[in-house]
Amino acid sequence: MSYETVIGIETHVELKTASKMFCGCPVDFGAEPNTNVCPVCLGLPGALPVPNERAIEWTVALGLALGCRVAERSLFHRKNYFYADLPKNYQISQFDLPLCIGGHLDIETEAGARRIGITRVHLEEDTGKSTHLGESGRIHAAEAALLDFNRSGIPLMEVVSEPDIRSPEEARAYAHELLAIILALGISDARLEEGSVRLDTNVSVRPEGSTALGTKVEVKNLNSLRSLQRTLDFELERQVGILESGGRIAQETRHWDERAERTEPGRSKEESSDYRYFPEPDLVPLAISAEAQERIRASLPELPAQRRSRYLDLGLDNRSARLVAEGENYGDTFDAAVAAGADAKAAANWLTGEVTAHLRRAHMALGDSPLVGGHLAELHAMVKGGELSSTAAKDVLTGVLDGEGTPRQVAEKRDLKQISDASALEAAVDEAIAADPETLDRLRRGDQKIVGFLMGRVMGATGGKADPQKVREIIQERASG
Amino acid sequence: MSAADLTIAAAGAVLRSGDLSAAGLLDAVRRRIAETEPIVDAFLAMDETGADSAAAAADEAFAAGTDLGPLQGIPLAVKDNMVTRGVETTAGSQILAGYRPPYDATVVERLRAGGAVIVGKTNLDEFAMGSSTENSSFKVTHNPWDTNRVPGGSSGGSAAAVAAGSALGALGSDTGGSIRQPASLCGVVGMKPTYGLVSRYGLIAFASSLDQIGPFARTVDDAVTLFETIAGHDPSDATSYRGDVPQVRADLESGVDGLRIGVIGELAGEGMEPDVLAAFERTVELLSGAGAEIKTLSLPSVEHALSAYYLIAPAECSANLARFDGVRYGLRVDGDNVEQMMAATRRRGFGPEVTRRVLLGTYALSAGYYDAFYGQAQKVRTLVIRDFEQAYAEADVLVSPTSPTTAFCIGDRTEDPLSMYLSDVCTIPSNLAGDPAISVPVGLDGQGLPIGFQILAPALGEPVLFRVARAVEDLANFEARPGLTAGEAGA
């Protein structure tokens, strides 16, 4: 029997607002434990929450970017459960009236383009962080637990997809595109590896053609796009295997074990949890006015999909368009380069090639490097004007990235400028011929091998700086002359 | 007469005349506390050093000609569910025994900014859940009018302290009548402001959508002074009202001539003690004689208010009290793992009434029960609000007895929670509506126990509320003082 895969993804995103969701404590990921805390985020008696308006606006911004409807009236609810790193033992979250409802995200895989429904985007507060001491690092065998409440109360946005995803590849494309949008909006660092984004997936399989949903398994603890895809690959194989052998899938939460490359059951849910949601009486309903919505909509930056299609129109291939549109600061640098006169393809090739390689070697982000769009335009002009060979251009780029100055300054300092002055090149060619007069006869007989030989001589004599195109032209002139 | 028996207004005049220093006034109050506390037990904690330095600061200010307002140098008491920086705050619960908060509640800040001298923290029913202060896990407070009797609750300590002269005024909190009912039983003025007018930041929450902080005083004028000091927008409380605080002084002495006063029919007959009803009716007649137009109005939903309240308040409290788990502060009872530690801590830390309400609220919010209980209660709440709106189309204020009975004997109702819950039948509707209300003493029953008269006004109707209260105070001319002795128990 063949099976269809059904996947839904819940994405938790920590917003990088200056302060926490319900208090003035700074959002700072590197601080000493329990230093960014106050009565509110520690849940001290008497403390009250005050919502962070920036976090609400950012959530609405993502909702609009995903084509969601923004609720005219939205409520915070209390989600009640006891956990040591949840200071109030309830989380202020959203329930039946989230900020944004019903959008979609378009993705593309080798199987083609698909539209994935977005159920909702809502806002809540993050919990503190528990560290379990002891051999296993697992909660039940722990000797002690350490609690850090710096994370408690950081704004956490949750994006819930419809169960529209049909393959691990699509899941990866969905997560990739969502993170690209979040990065474009500048509302989160969106780093899976560092936990500022957390992915939970609901996976089930069903016989091809069936419309009923199979028993779903929730898989947590996915800290990269790669492990997302591998988790799903593993989980689907596991589930199909169980069904094929006549077994039944248990509804459970599983965790991805990165080292064992398999999912393992978490604590089984003895009963379905009852969070006893009720409207948070310490907060008033949120009303996002039509004007506020329009203001937020107008301030949305160009989204990755729009950017990619604009770059395709500029003649970039699919891969370059995606890389330039999605790399942090790449799009802006590229746009500035093109605006300053650079050739789009050349600028894209440099950015995705030499620049990326160099930044990776230097462990540097483009935004932190001295390279600006104008440099690429200048570089392009120098190549086009014959001042630089394309090989030398790459060296110049390295110099610019190392902070040695503008392309022109680097080219001069590193003595990389090409010799394209006709009389100088003619002299060099004539010199090469004079050194070995037999070459001229062979040239005149049309021996093309000798062209290469002479070019090598000229390039050697000029330290590789002669414009090879022009040298070739001059040699050909001598042959017919 | 001791300076401890002065009103805030009179004490303020004496302090400004130079005849008495703030330190001297504090001494007089402390002598009174020393006399009465062994009998009354109104306080859970005294703040000796804080009060001394506040009094000294007030005296320096007077000497320097600085005047922070009518509370400068005035000894006050604060209910122990409002946090005070560095001063033990327990909300009457073992689970917070020894807890010293790192910050002041906004109301406490405002009292301090006004130069007030906070003498101590007053007793209450644990987490403000109760109507007699017998649910305090530390001590029982006695009614200064008859020490065999309860002072009412949950702000019984504040009411008793003001009645006994152990403070010139006090703050309480009112979730279902917890200021007005003890004010009534202790013969003092107690007022619950419009929801949102006074910040709840630093008030240890019982039921967030109902809780409101308000004043106790011996006169309406003093209650106004306290109200004016604590009311006003607070950015730390998202439910705090953003507009201007209604100006109440201007009309305070305008009397009731021409005002329409509605008697709440459902609360002015059945279920009220005869003496309470008689005092109520006499006061209504006095108001009529003073030119008020009296009409009896029906608010049918009021009869369901109590039931709705006992679903909404426990539901909210079940979440509000979840934070007391032994992890970060307060009591911790060890267990084999964190869940067992939390359970053991809560089992030992919470008293029976708190446990009952947490369980009730948890149940009311559970899947499958939410609509039938919490959802239904919210609908009743909407009906109460609507009934009040209709009533206020016909009357400027509404009136009723504050409590169906005068002070009852200690131990009389502790075995029967429902009879205790009925103590709040007259006061709960204004909490559900979020409207202001006040209790003013108007007389004594046959046993010499004070009787309160309740006035209710629409949201932000504090000007007319205080105006009528001031008129009632004048007309009733209640001047009796408690004897601080035991009456005939069980009478």
Structural class by secondary-structure content of chain A: alpha+beta
Assigned CATH architecture of the domain at 3-252 in chain B: Alpha-Beta Complex
CATH top level assignment of the domain at 3-252 in chain B? Alpha Beta
Enumerate the spans of chain A where pLDDT stays under 50 for 5 or more consecutive residues.
Answer: none
Reading side by side through the largest sheet of chain A, how are the strands ordered? 2-5-6-9-1-10-11-12-13
Mean model confidence by pLDDT of chain B: 96
What is the quaternary state of this protein?
Answer: heterodimer
**Helix content range of the residues of chain A, please?**
25-40%
Intertermini distance of chain B: 31 Å
Sum this structure up briefly.
Chain A is α+β, with helices and mostly antiparallel strands and 481 residues long. In chain A, 39% of the residues lie in helices and 19% in strands. Chain A has three domains: 3-292, no CATH class; 302-413, no CATH class; 422-480, Arc Repressor Mutant, subunit A (Orthogonal Bundle).
Question: Would you mind describing this structure in some detail?
Answer:
By secondary structure, chain A is an alpha+beta fold. Chain A has helices spanning 53-65, 168-185, 225-244, 290-298, 304-313, 318-326, 330-339, 344-362, 373-384, 390-401, 407-413, 422-434, 438-444, 448-461, 468-480, and strands spanning 3-14, 69-70, 77-80, 90-93, 100-109, 112-125, 129-133, 144-148, 155-161, 197-207, 217-222, 252-257, 262-265, 278-279. In chain A, strands 2-5-6-9-1-10-11-12-13 form a nine-stranded mixed β-sheet. In chain A, strands 4-3-14 form a three-stranded antiparallel β-sheet, with no helix packed on it. In chain A, helix 6 packs across helix 8, helix 12 (422-434) packs across helix 15 and helix 13 (438-444) packs across helix 15 (468-480). The N and C termini of chain A lie far apart (77 Å). The model of chain A has no long low-confidence stretch (mean pLDDT 91). The mean pLDDT of chain B is 96. The radius of gyration of chain B is 21 Å and the shape is globular. Chain B has 15 helices and eleven strands. Chain B has an eleven-stranded mixed β-sheet with strand order 1-3-2-4-6-5-10-11-9-7-8, with helices on both faces. In chain B, helix 8 (274-289) links the parallel strand 7 (260-264) and strand 8 (293-297). Chain B has 491 residues and is an alpha/beta fold. Chain B has helices at residues 8-17, 22-40, 48-64, 106-113, 156-164, 180-186, 220-230, 274-289, 302-320, 338-349, 352-364, 371-394, 417-421, 428-433, 462-476; strands spanning 43-46, 75-79, 117-122, 169-174, 189-192, 212-217, 260-264, 293-297, 397-401, 437-444, 450-456. Classes of the chains: A alpha+beta (481), B alpha/beta (491). At the A-B interface, loops of A face helix 9 and helix 10 of B.
